[in-house]
Design goal:
Elements: E1 2-5, H1 8-19, E2 24-26, E3 33-37, H2 41-51, E4 60-62, H3 69-72, H4 77-86, E5 91-96, E6 113-117, H5 122-131, E7 135-136, H6 151-158, E8 164-167, E9 178-181, E10 188-191, H7 197-204, E11 233-234, E12 244-248, E13 257-258, H8 265-279, E14 287-290, H9 298-311
Parallel strand pairs: 1-8, 2-8, 4-6, 5-9, 11-14, 12-13, 12-14
Antiparallel strand pairs: 2-3, 3-7, 4-7, 5-6, 9-10
Helix pairs in contact: 1-5, 8-9
The protein binds threonylcarbamoyladenylate and magnesium ion.
Magnesium ion (MG) binds near residues 138, 139 and 147.
Length: about 325
């Protein structure tokens, strides 16, 4: 396994590898993705097997340009407006597949829908352009682990199974994209992320924010085994007990990690997964205690990931 420098030669090698039906890990602005040519059934199968991902959980298709959507999904005004506003960027749109959509049905877990986004990262963009085909890419972690935000995280988790990991340094956003279902009349957020409901509402009007209404049929992602730390995780903690690692927000005495000393939610989001990876270590701590994180903007997505992690245990 090699971590490749993502210069022109590295990107060209990765693109060749992908076109030959292999899997490559690459950086995006959210987290690292485990990419395969979305039009090749066997390549997509490798992604599912490397991740240990259940076949019922569909993958996101990454495109180099919004115009690539035309071949993949039925369009409407909301889709065009959202892509115009937020792409390239961390918003994934769940759409109705065109009947002649060239993407492997396995990517969609055999559903009639397809999730698409244009990543906002120069290496991801260069790779997509070089491959000249859409890439199916889930987060580059084994199913049930925390998403990787550095090439090193990917190497630790999946290095043995991969020939190429393109190193783009730490991911800027650090949390996975917002997933928005547009196959229903009132669009619904299936996974909160960097782009929040307020921003989406400004573009397409009212959306359904009722999280509990998400059922397994609409959101196969809910079937996914979510990341659960091996240590007990306490939320909204003002301090840590003896032996616990305290994850602070905005300063604290004896914090093991401060997500953002200046109370910047975007900074906290970009640090969250690295903090969990570093501190979820039973040889050093008995438990994890996380400070309250304000629940607005990207804070909603941070709280979503923390709640799932705490519940997953
Ligand atoms: O930021 C991201 O979205 C990263 C980067 C690599 O792009 N990718 C990512 O992929 O987080 P993954 O597979 O870890 O999460 C994709 C989520 C899953 O919850 C999946 O169920 C949902 O998107 N999803 C994909 N296709 C869907 C579909 N057709 N209908 C409903 N949900 C879908
Ligand atoms: Mg994932």
């Amino acid at each position: 396994m090699t971590i490749k420098v993502a210069d022109d030669a590295g990107i060209a090698a990765a693109a060749d590898h992908l076109r030959s039906g292999h899997v490559v890990a690459f950086p995006t602005e959210t987290v690292y993705g485990l990419g395969a040519d979305a039009t090749q059934h066997d390549a997509v199968s490798k992604v599912f097997s490397i991740k240990g991902r259940p076949a019922v959980n569909p993958l996101i298709v990454h495109v180099a340009d919004p115009s690539w959507l035309e071949e993949l999904a039925e369009s409407d005004d909301r889709i065009t407006a959202l892509a115009d506003t937020f792409w390239p960027g961390p918003l994934t749109l769940v759409l109705n597949r065109r009947s002649d959509c060239p993407i492997s049905k396995q990517v969609s877990a055999n559903l009639d829908t397809i999730a698409v986004r244009q990543p906002d990262h120069p290496i991801a963009a260069a790779l997509l352009t070089a491959v000249d085909r859409p890439l199916a890419a889930p987060s580059a972690n084994p199913s049930g682990h925390v998403s990787p935000t550095t090439a090193k995280h990917v190497e630790t988790d999946l290095g043995d199974a991969l020939d190429i990991i393109l190193d783009g340094g730490p991911c800027r956003a650090g949390l996975e994209s917002t997933v928005l279902d547009l196959t229903i009349e009132t669009a619904r957020i299936l996974r909160p992320g960097v782009i929040d409901a307020v921003a989406i509402t400004k573009v397409i009007g009212v959306i359904d924010e009722h999280e509990s209404s998400i059922g397994p049929i609409n959101s196969p992602g809910q079937l996914e085994k979510h990341y659960a730390p091996s240590l007990p995780l306490k939320l909204n903690a003002d301090s840590a007990h003896e032996g616990e690692a305290y994850i602070a927000f905005g300063g604290a005495q004896n914090a093991a990690f401060d997500l953002s000393p200046s109370c910047d939610l975007a900074e906290a989001a970009s640090n969250l997964f690295a903090a969990l990876r570093e501190l979820d270590d039973p040889t050093r701590f008995k438990g994890l205690a996380v400070a309250p994180i304000p629940a607005y903007g990207i804070g909603q997505a941070i709280n979503d990931r923390l709640r799932r992690a705490a519940k997953g245990r």
